[in-house]
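Hey,
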Amino acid sequence: MWWIIAKREFTDLSRDGHVRWSGLTLSTLLLVALATGWHQQQAVTGEQASAARMVRETWLAQPPKDPHSAAHYGAYLFKPRQPLGLIDIGVSNYTGVAVWLEAHRQNEFLFRPAQDQTAVARFIEFTVAGALQVLVPVLIALLVHTRLAGERESGTLRQLVASGVRPATLVAGKGVGVGLALGVWLVPLATIGSAALLVSAGVAPALVDAARYASLAAAYLAYFAVVTLVGLAVTARARTAGIALATLVVFWAVTSFVVPRAVSGLARTWYPTPSAFAFAQRVDRDTYDGLTVHDWFARRAADYRRTLLAQYNVSRLEDLPVNYRGVEYLNREDETNVVWDRHYGALWAAFDSQTRVHQFGGFASPMLAVRSLSMGLAGADVFHHRHFAQAAEAYRRRMVQAMNGELAYGSTSADLNYRGGADLWARVPSFTYAPPTLRVTLIEQRWGVASLAAWAAGALLLALAATRALRVE
């Protein structure tokens, strides 16, 4: 019986002009977002690959020079956008895509598109993920609000119940009908999106990440199921279709805009983070003990020179079996790295705490729950940015250590004109990066998974309770 009801609902919805136009509008918007995301993905991937090759070639083509000067010469690293970035760009526009590696400093990431956007542009940032999270629930509300409230209004609900149709069967059939009608619009788009992923990432990488893609699809299916079940519960209890629609619109507005804004405000209030300028000032103050850079270096150099001469029991720098400058640079890097680790550790801890607030906010809004999961699975959340930033910093330290180590132990202080060459530059390998696995990602997103699962269970219980309380008036 439920299947008969489902087919009837699907037929009615397919013939509804308002539904057709709404579905066509949503499909068009999703196609535009997908095309825009694919174009950006291709452009960014191509530009980064070209820039990375040029940076590597430039590093290897350096003329002979002081190794420490090569450490200052440095190199750019570019954060790769993961294949699912064409669906969800997450916080990528705010975290930056490139970082400059050099001696003595752990630089912030550069090229953040959000810096060049207006506040309005940032608020209405249009992506496939944004459309799925905000616009699809609107279509679901349009599909579901008349299913039971409309039947009650027209008097047909009394006839259906009088004919022996059980309320549970009726609600189940209508829910499946709504799902079929929604699938007419979303399944072709999902097929097109899958094809775009294959073209963008390549068949082999796409197959490797198939479980990640499936997890993302499952997250959105669960989200749509939550909205549909809530809609069925509302329409089962509402006296009229208008009241049902108004209730669903309020639910959509609160969970899609009010709660996320409130959660963001709470996260920033509870766990504030310094501005880039204030952060740099704190690091400099901690690094140089409140002195000017010139005075600090002068005092430190004198102290360390005495220590090193005493260690090797010589009276002149020229008599040292190592190069004083290189050893001093190695020591200085170790000391400043401790400062950077302390300050960045506190900064990442604050970001982690903010992220947890957002994830726990998913218990108050299914949109927040799926947004957190979507960004994580797309490799575009703060966790993935931190993972890359830490890999980049580890590479910077190896590069600088290789240059300073060559100067320290490949020459002596008497070699005033010591120069490194192509063989030294080649000792620094090309940067390679392996993003977190799906397992690690899901562990990091455990509260997002839990909150979405809680919403699914709660929405199901709400729909069942509304079904049992269904009244014919």
